[in-house]
Design a protein that fits this description.
Number of domains: 4
Shape: globular
GO molecular function: intramolecular phosphotransferase activity; metal ion binding
Radius of gyration: 22 Å
Protein name: Phosphomannomutase/phosphoglucomutase
Distance between the termini: 52 Å
Largest sheet: 7 strands, mixed
Oligomer: single chain
Family: Belongs to the phosphohexose mutase family.
Number of strands: 22
Pfam families: PGM_PMM_I, PGM_PMM_II, PGM_PMM_III, PGM_PMM_IV
Structural class: alpha/beta
Keywords: Isomerase, Magnesium, Metal-binding, Phosphoprotein
CATH class of the largest domain: Alpha Beta
Helix content: 25-40%
Length: about 475
């Protein structure tokens, strides 16, 4: 196994690689052993769950072998969503591993690691050390068992997970809603009936769910389970209109992200959802008697309206770089009640600071279902500006592209480098900003633009894209 280079597929926030050529049972055993060793988890419980990909059950079993060999007592929760694994990690206060490649194609799989209490692990906070320990095992012939090896048991947590989410948001009083849900053949096909329906034994809600691709199938026969790509929303958009539904929800493969479309099939931006949930969470903790400063996190790519809504609600916005492990760390550092990202990751203090797309959907349904406007009109109040969405460009010479942008905008806006390069226009030039960030793994530059009008946004977008791609204007 010494020819395996884990650094090729142990990423900034998780493990993500090709099945067979990169991820194998032996590699997973070594990563499990490194995980237990690094966290000092021998003699304690470690949670393992997996999605519906064909390779996931075998990998979960390999993880159980490696972890138990190093003395951990493995608790397998079987098929689950990623946020269900976070629930188990928080509820049982145990480290956890989730086997999923999220929205990646079927040829991929991966692992999302958590410390006890659903705390994230990144390269900077332990993942690099796990990788290096695993690499040492692979280079020296495999995992060596400790004298007191651990046990392996199973536990079903779906009903407890559903009950936890229902306890955080009360939907019993909303008006009747018809909702089309596209699970993309991913884990939403398991969790949606449990949380929004009666599959987990919970009382019926005033919701009519129209299911789309609820069959668990890791080959993704209908479309990739990546709602961030517009092409993967087309079926949902058509179904919402065809069924006369009030809205549509789309989940990614491991069901930790949730995207929303309105009754016309138009997408509701994750920034609008973040603003809606932020205002609700601030109001809730204030009503519960919280008198100190309330923090809400947003990454620097969310709409300007998100911090505006947070401040209007009487809370303090905290602007961060992009990245779920980083934001989980900031949630714990600040005690923030909520955090939102442009990518439809939503984080909750009442969910151990972890992200949960299903919980964000519950908040949206509660707020929307308490009034009579259609979602298109209701959501427009939280989406007043023009956003470009993320635009990727292949760029071989990223420093040269940066230089062109800096030269063009030096006298026209303020610069900051919290994450990539953000340029904000001077107030007398109308409201606009853009951010350019390099990819961690590919020769890509990612561009996001926002402005007070669609025309201004398009003008800034086109100018920056021309500079990125070295085109003539």
């Amino acid at each position: 196994m010494s020819n395996v280079d884990l650094s090729a597929f142990v990423k900034a926030y998780d493990v993500r690689g090709l099945v067979g050529s990169q991820l194998t049972p032996a590699v997973v055993e070594a990563l499990a052993a490194g995980f237990v060793d690094e966290l000092g988890a021998a003699g304690t419980e470690v949670i393992v769950g997996h999605d519906m990909r064909d390779s996931s059950p075998e990998f979960a079993e390999a993880f159980a072998r490696g972890a138990s060999a190093r003395g951990a007592h493995v608790v397998s929760i079987g098929l689950c969503s990623t946020d269900e694994t976070y629930f188990a990690s928080g509820f049982f206060d145990a480290p956890a591993a989730m086997f999923t490649a999220s929205h990646n194609p079927a040829s991929y799989n991966g692992i999302k690691f958590s410390r006890a209490g659903a705390q994230g692990i990144s390269l900077a906070t332990g993942l690099a050390a796990i990788r290096d320990r695993a690499q040492a095992y692979l280079d020296t012939g495999g995992v060596t068992p400790v004298e007191a090896v651990g046990t392996v048991a199973t536990r079903d947590v779906l009903a407890a997970y559903a009950a936890k989410l229902r306890s955080l948001v009360d939907l019993s009083g909303v008006r009747p809603l018809k909702i089309v849900v596209d699970a993309g053949n991913g884990m939403g096909g398991l969790t949606v009936p449990a949380v929004l329906g009666e599959a987990a034994g919970l009382p019926a809600l005033p919701l009519e769910i129209v299911p789309l691709y609820f069959e668990l199938d890791g080959t993704f026969p209908n479309h990739e389970a990546n709602p961030l790509e517009p092409a993967n929303l087309v079926d949902l958009q058509k179904a919402v209109v065809a069924h006369g539904a009030d809205l549509g929800l789309a989940f990614d493969g491991d069901a930790d992200r949730c995207f929303v479309v309105d009754e016309t099939g138009a997408p509701v931006t994750p920034s609008a959802v973040a603003a809606i949930v932020a205002v609700r969470e601030v109001a809730r903790v204030r009503a519960a008697g919280e008198t100190g400063e309330v923090f809400v996190i947003h990454n620097l790519i969310t709409s300007r309206f998100v911090p505006e809504a947070i401040e209007a609600a009487g809370a303090t916005p905290v602007r961060t770089r992009v990245g779920h492990s980083l934001i989980k760390d900031r949630m714990h550092e600040t005690g923030a009640v909520f955090g939102g990202e442009h990518s439809a990751h939503y984080y909750f203090r009442d969910f151990w600071g972890a992200d949960n797309g299903m919980l964000a959907a519950l908040h949206l349904l509660a707020e929307f279902g308490a009034q009579d406007q259609p979602l298109s009109r209701f959501a427009a109040r939280f989406d007043p500006y023009a956003l470009s969405g993320e635009i990727n460009s292949t760029v071989e010479d990223i420093p040269a592209a940066y230089t062109r942008i800096v030269d063009a905008f030096t006298a026209r806006g303020e610069f900051d480098e919290l994450d990539g390069l953000t340029v904000t226009g001077a107030p007398d030039a109308g409201f606009w900003w853009f951010n350019v960030r390099p990819s961690n793994t590919e020769p890509l530059l990612r561009l996001n633009v926002e402005a007070d009008t669609a025309e201004r946004m398009a003008a800034v977008r086109d100018e920056v894209l021309a500079l990125i791609r070295a085109l003539e204007l």
